[in-house]
Design goal:
This protein is mainly alpha-helical and about 375 residues long. The protein has one domain. The chain is built from 15 helices and three strands. It has a three-stranded antiparallel β-sheet with strand order 1-2-3, with helices on one face. Strand 2 and strand 3 form a beta hairpin.
């Protein structure tokens, strides 16, 4: 009976992830509504509109053929690198960083789009690489160049957090492509050896202060340690049940900085407690499970690398933001997907979801053809 009532085209959509993300984004709008002291403006309404627009974008992406993604890989990479150059030269400066291009209805942050962009580019690169070449050191040179160029352009904005996120997503694709583990171990050891030099020579003063504050936030409670201290107070004061909707003192009294963006999870945890936090984490885990299942069942190497890379891109958003607001990682400007206010980040994550949905559609078609 159900099959006759619900059209096949609707049934075949990826409701396994669309419905949970719709619920999560609605919860995010509720959090933003409370952060604005019970007002839809300026965050909650726009957050909902952005999600609706980008959900349509995800549906459009999900219907694109595999050949289109492959054809788009290198041109999109070139466009994004060009946009990063434009940002570095002419971009809008906010909060001491030059990261945005004003396109009217939103402030576009090209570095956010580079996160899925580098995944697509590397997935196509390794798909076209002969299998015998994958474990050859010569394969690492062009892949390394593809990673280093955008990473450096993002870091000099300066935006170390996003730059490392771009590199991390790329590293996942390189690892899954089958490069030898000893190369990753060697890179890790080299990175550990060079870290002290980079800390004192390459990082800006404020970036060094963030690392030192992470190690000892109590040293300067009213200065560099203020953000993370207030965030931990907000999360801890929520307890298990939370203070209740609209009763968060840290955000309403403006003790908690960036309560609607980077520290939206702390805003939520104060009012909804551990239960709210577990709900958010559960939805994310469900999303990651779905994404990895799609990658595992993908019909070919390109599709598998693409889906896995996009899944881990979303994972890094969640992991870094939650670790940051709980004081387990240095403070970086990375919002929490579907909870924090931010158009560019939401667009990036919905593009990742749309791409995984596309891979799932390719798998269904491949399965129907094989039967």
């Amino acid at each position: 009976m159900t099959r006759r009532i619900i059209p096949e085209a609707i049934k075949r959509e990826s409701w396994e992830v669309i419905i949970p993300l719709f619920v999560l984004n609605t919860f995010g709008s509720v959090v933003l509504y409370s952060a604005a002291s019970g007002n839809l403006q300026p965050w909650a309404l726009l957050h909902t509109i952005h999600f609706a627009v980008f959900l349509v974008m995800a549906f459009v992406i999900s219907r694109l053929p595999r050949e289109f993604f492959k054809a788009l890989a290198y041109p999109s990479y070139a466009i994004l690198v060009t946009l990063l150059l434009i940002v570095d030269l002419f971009g809008a400066v906010r909060g001491g960083s030059q990261r945005w291009i004003d396109i009217g209805f939103m402030q576009l942050q090209p570095s956010e789009l580079m996160k899925p962009g580098i995944v697509l580019t590397l997935a196509y690169f390794f798909d076209t690489l002969p299998p015998a070449m994958t474990k050859n050191w010569r394969a690492l040179l062009p892949a390394g160049a593809l990673i280093v160029v955008p990473t450096l352009l993002v870091i000099i904005q300066p935006d170390l957090g996003t730059g490392l996120s771009v590199a991390a997503g790329a590293a996942v694709v390189v690892f899954l492509a089958g490069l030898p583990m000893r190369w990753f171990v060697g890179a890790g050891l080299a990175g550990a050896a060079l870290a002290p030099i980079a800390f004192f020579t390459l990082l800006h003063d404020y970036q060094r202060k963030r690392v030192l504050t992470f190690l000892n936030p109590e040293e300067d409670l009213l200065g560099t340690g203020y953000h993370i201290t207030q965030s931990k107070i907000a999360i801890g004061s929520g307890g298990f049940w939370g203070k209740g909707f609209g009763n968060g003192s840290q955000s309403h009294l403006e003790y908690l900085p960036e309560a609607q963006t980077d520290f939206a999870f702390a805003t939520m945890a104060e009012e909804w407690g551990v239960l709210g936090g577990l709900f958010v984490i559960a939805v994310f885990l469900w999303t990651f499970r779905w994404g990895l299942k799609v990658a595992r069942n993908a019909p070919d190497r390109f599709s598998s690398l693409l889906a896995a890379g996009m899944t881990f891109t979303v994972f890094f958003y969640m992991a870094i933001n939650m670790l940051m607001v709980m004081g387990l990682a240095p403070v970086v400007g990375i919002p929490l997907p579907w909870i924090s206010h931010g158009g560019s980040a939401l667009m990036t994550n919905m593009a990742c979801i749309g791409t995984i949905m596309a891979v799932e559609r390719w798998s269904r078609r491949s399965g129907s053809l094989s039967t």
